Amino acid sequence: MNLRFVETFVWVARLGSFRAAAERLNATQAAVSNRIASLEAEMGCELFERMPGGVRLSTVGQRALQPAEELLRTATSFKVAISSPLQLRATISIGTIDSIVHAWLPQFIEQVKARFPALGLDLNVDTSLGIARDICERRLDLALLMGPVLRTGLKNIDLCSMECLWVAAPSFGLGGQPLRLQELRAHPVLSFSRNSVQHVWLLRQFEELGVPPPVISNSNSLSAVSRLACDGVGVALLPLPVAAAAIATGALERLSITPQFPALKLHAVYADDPENLIPSMLAVIAREVSLSAAKGAP
User: Fold this and answer.
1) Is the domain of 232 the same as that of 171?
2) Going by fewer Cβ within 10 Å, which terminus of the chain is more open, N or C?
3) Are 53 and 195 members of one domain?
4) How many structural domains comprise the chain?
């Protein structure tokens, strides 16, 4: 059985047309049609029902899809097993968030380059909402974000959790005393991007307290939020790795505010693609690095 024909069958099944599969496989539509016809002739059955504008799996094709994907996955695993990491040449697109950039992303990249020196990395930093959208639309191979991303065909691996805290410049005089969340109404607040999990949590807390929220300024750049907080523009909600350096130098003070903001739950997300096992291997590295960084955190 020709594995290329099996691969073509899987992509036609996933995309629902010979044309789309041909584009994905960098082949002509005629070549894709011939491969499917040859596979059907070899199997002695029709794998697809032809319809105007596309195809759909026949009853036999539906039964064959999962074994075909497992066959490709096994073949890919075999290639990876007998290949040296030095020979894995590809460019992997990775989406991540500010919090991870300031925490353990450098160590992650170091580990990836040490294990797969010929692997190129295409990095994109955005909000978790933006990264989740991109991984769902398959514009990324791997997403490192606040998750999980619950979508058919995507795998989620738990990473470390990340502490989030309130900080302010010493000029506010809020450090070293217990505060309630509603007391922040007297100050401008700097927060994560609008409609993020953190922003929604903050608005909900004020709603439950029965008091109007303070004036909140949002940004999708946590570096910008940290800089503005250091300059005394407002009280800020930040992940610990983003604020740690400013706290260490005294530019920011850690505040004791009740209720405490819940830790950020981080995940590595990738498509369950039997032909591309590299993102799954990088997800495992991300887990190792993030858990190691969490153990070493102050």
Assistant:
1) yes
2) C
3) no
4) 3
Rg of the chain over CA atoms, in angstroms? Answer: 25
Question: Is the pLDDT reported for residue 180 higher than 90?
Answer: yes
For residues 87-105, give the mean pLDDT.
88
How far is it, in rounded angstroms, from Cα 290 to Cα 241? Answer: 12
pLDDT band at 274 (very low <50, low <70, confident <90, very high): low
Please tell me whether residues 67 and 151 are part of one structural domain.
no
Going from the C-alpha of 121 to that of each of 89, 205, 247, 267, 283, the distances in angstroms are 11, 39, 32, 19, 14
pTM of the predicted structure, to 2 decimals: 0.71
Lowest-pLDDT range, 68-82, 99-113, 163-177? Answer: 68-82
- Give yes or no: residues 46 and 119 share one domain: no
Domain identity same for 279 and 254: no
By residue range, what is the domain housing residue 73?
3-82
Residue 130: Cβ within 10 Å count: 17
pLDDT reported for residue 278: 85
Residues 141 and 179 reside in one and the same domain: no
CA distances from 255 to 111, 113, 139, 142, 216 (A): 35, 38, 39, 35, 17
Mean local confidence (pLDDT), 108-131: 92
